[in-house]
Structures are given as C-alpha cells and as structure tokens.
Specification:
Quinone Oxidoreductase, Chain A, domain 1; Rossmann fold; binds NADP nicotinamide-adenine-dinucleotide phosphate; 7-stranded mixed beta sheet; 2 domains; 6-stranded parallel beta sheet; 332 residues
Length: 332
C-alpha cells in the first residue's frame, strides 16, 4: 500500500511517497481502508520538528492523526466491529507526535480508538471534524463553556478549530468576536459563528476588542499562540479564561505568572484533545455530541479543499501559509 513518510524534518519537500507491506491486524486491531484523511496543523509541526518537550518521533515517520474509512479486516479478539463498517478516528491513544500514521491508504489500528459513523455523517465530514471537533469540545467542556450574552474572542476564527469554536460559542448564546487574516476569511467567519470580525494583521485587535466588549472578555480561545496570546490578556474581564490550544504563529513565549494576577486574576488553560474523552465510552459520547451539533445545523463543517494524497506537499504548503479556511482533506 502507498503511504507518505518523512525521513527527516524540513519543508513540504521532505514528504515522500513510499510503498509498504501492511501485516494482518493484531488480535485487538482493525485494518481500516482510509477514504478521507484529515490534515491538521500539528502534521506541519511534526514535519517541521523542534516542537517537542523531550524526544520527538523516530524516523521514518508516516504523518497524520485523523482519518475516516471502511473496516477491511478485524483481529480475533475484536468485538463490536466488522468488515464493511464505516469508522473514523482522531489519535490512537498516545501523544499526537508519537501516534501518527494516517497518511496512508490503509492502517492497522487499535479497535478501541475507532468511532462508528452514523449513516447521516459522511466519511469526509468525519475526517474534517473529529480531531478539530474534539479540540473544540475540550476547550468548551473542560476550560470555559460560553454563556448567553458574554463576549468571547476566537483567534483565527476561520481556521479548522477556530470556526468550530466560533459556531459552538454562538450556538450557546455568546457574543463571538473573531480575528482573521483577510477580508475573505472575515466573510467566512461571519457565516460561521462570528458576530464581529477583526482583521488582526491590519488593526490593533486589543483596541478593537475593547471597543466591541467594553466589559471585557469572558474567554479567549487561541490557536495562534506567539503573536496573540499575551496581548489578549489586556482584553479580559476579571477572572476571565485565557485558553491557548495551539501555536500556528509559534509557541507562546515564557511569561511571569504574576501577569495573570495583574491583568485581572485570569485563569490559564492549555488543553489537548488527546486527554479529553480518552476512553472508548467518553469518546463515543463526545463524538455523538459533535454529530448532533452538525445534524441540528448548529455547526457547519466546511471542507474548503481536498487534495489527492500524492499532492500532500502542496496541501502542506497551502495550510502552512494560512491560505485555507475550515478543514482540508487528503484523499487516498
Ligand atoms: N491542543 C490540541 O489538542 C490541538 C488540536 C488541534 C489543533 N491544535 C492547534 O491549533 C492550531 C490551529 O489548528 P487548525 O486546525 O485550526 O489550523 P488551520 O485551520 O490550519 O488554521 C491556522 C490559522 O492560523 C492563522 N495563523 C496565524 N499566524 C499564522 C502563521 N504564522 N502561520 C500560519 N497560520 C497562522 C491563520 O489564519 P489567519 O490568516 O486568519 O491568521 C491560519 O489559517 C494549530 O496550532 C494546531 O496545532 C491543537
């Protein structure tokens, strides 16, 4: 079977097509033929390297943490799944940079990481929403649940995770302000949960946010990191929640903890989807909630671009340059 591997860290040019023999699934494993693979910004971080605390992955590495597909074979001890079932997964139980392998036509996976797909959720929707949706879920259920009429700031509100957070917060009744990198992205964000948008590369987002939310923000949801996180403290109401879930612009620089006290006794969160809904039962429940949000129309999952798996280098370049909105898929 064909897969995409890296043998060293670097730019999109290090992504190489490789041919591999896949062994039969182990006793507790399931072989899945991928039909849609979710591209996540973390794939770019793993490709670039230099992102880890402690050891990074051992080369060669097949990238990718998320896909949907069809069960092709099941190990002898697997119950509850059979050939032909439609399934999806986001991570397989370990740290996201150790736990990769989705950029492949097929993969043997622990049965416990798979979620069965309902008939009304397509493979592409599932691959576009599972990892990003579980990230939105950890932010909303474990960090700050937006309340009616309170003001929330979502950075990069047209991004994969950002657009889900904006829509979910709007659905819960919050006033949602989103920062975005272009006018096109602003229009997308206003169609996906944002009541107001700020072009944060052209205007000072702190001053603009203070105008829109003079009482201060109840929460900021930030996947941008270095460029936005610490400045956002100046927009908060006392005891507001500052949530950093990602680092698209680079890691948040070290800062003095006293700053949180000085800026209004802020509450700091750094969530990761892998620690949320980590058992098969809680994952099924969290995914069920995501499917219901999509089914009800509260959240639209937008696949802005699909690329053949063989054109993964172009897909990485586009995502890395911030050219995409919503979710991007690779099709084997
Ligand atoms: N904690 C977790 O469990 C978890 C899970 C999933 C993702 N994440 C992280 O969350 C972040 C966003 O993920 P995503 O899937 O929403 O990403 P995405 O759809 O690829 O969007 C990233 C957006 O970040 C903005 N951005 C700001 N500075 C940038 C820069 N220097 N380079 C590139 N983009 C920049 C761009 O939007 P604008 O043009 O509007 O600025 C870009 O479109 C990533 O850091 C990702 O690793 C964390």
């Amino acid at each position: 079977m064909q897969a995409i591997a890296i043998h060293r860290n670097g730019g999109p040019e290090v992504l190489e097509a490789v041919s591999l023999e896949l062994p039969p699934p182990g006793a507790r494993q399931v072989r899945v033929r991928h039909t849609a693979i979710g591209l996540n910004f973390s794939d770019i971080n793993v490709r670039n390297g230099g992102f880890y605390l402690g050891d990074g992955p051992q080369f060669p590495v097949i990238l990718g943490n998320e896909a949907a597909g069809v069960v092709e074979d099941v190990g002898g001890e697997v119950t509850g799944l059979r050939t032909g079932d439609r399934v999806a997964y986001a991570g397989t139980g370990g740290l996201f940079f150790h736990d990769t392998g989705a950029y492949a036509e097929q993969r043997n996976l622990p049965a416990t990481c798979l979620v069965k797909l309902p008939d009304d959720i397509s493979d592409q929707q599932a691959a576009a929403m599972l990892l990003k949706g579980l990230t939105a879920s950890v932010v909303i259920h474990r960090c700050h649940q937006p309340q009616p009429d309170e003001a929330i700031l979502v950075h990069a509100a047209s991004s994969g995770v950002g657009s889900l957070l904006a829509q979910w917060s709007h659905h819960l009744g919050a006033k949602v302000i989103g920062t975005v990198g272009s006018a096109v992205k602003a229009e997308f964000a206003r169609g996906h949960g944002c009541d107001h948008t700020i072009l944060y590369r052209q205007e000072d987002f702190v001053a603009a946010t203070k105008k829109l939310a003079p009482q201060g923000l109840a929460a900021v949801f930030d996947g941008v990191g270095k460029d936005t996180f610490i400045p956002s403290f100046d927009c908060m109401r006392p005891f507001g929640a500052v949530v950093n879930y990602g680092n698209a612009s680079g890691n948040v620089p070290p800062f003095n903890l006293m700053l949180l006290a000085q800026k209004g006794c802020l509450v700091l969160h750094r969530p990761g989807f892998g620690f949320h809904a980590a058992t098969p039962e809680t994952r099924a429940e969290a995914c069920g909630e995501l499917f219901q949000l999509v089914r009800s129309g509260a959240i639209k999952v937008e696949v802005s671009r699909t690329y053949p798996l063989t054109q993964v280098a172009q897909a990485h370049a586009d995502v890395e340059q911030g050219l995409t909105v919503g979710s991007v898929l690779l099709i084997p």
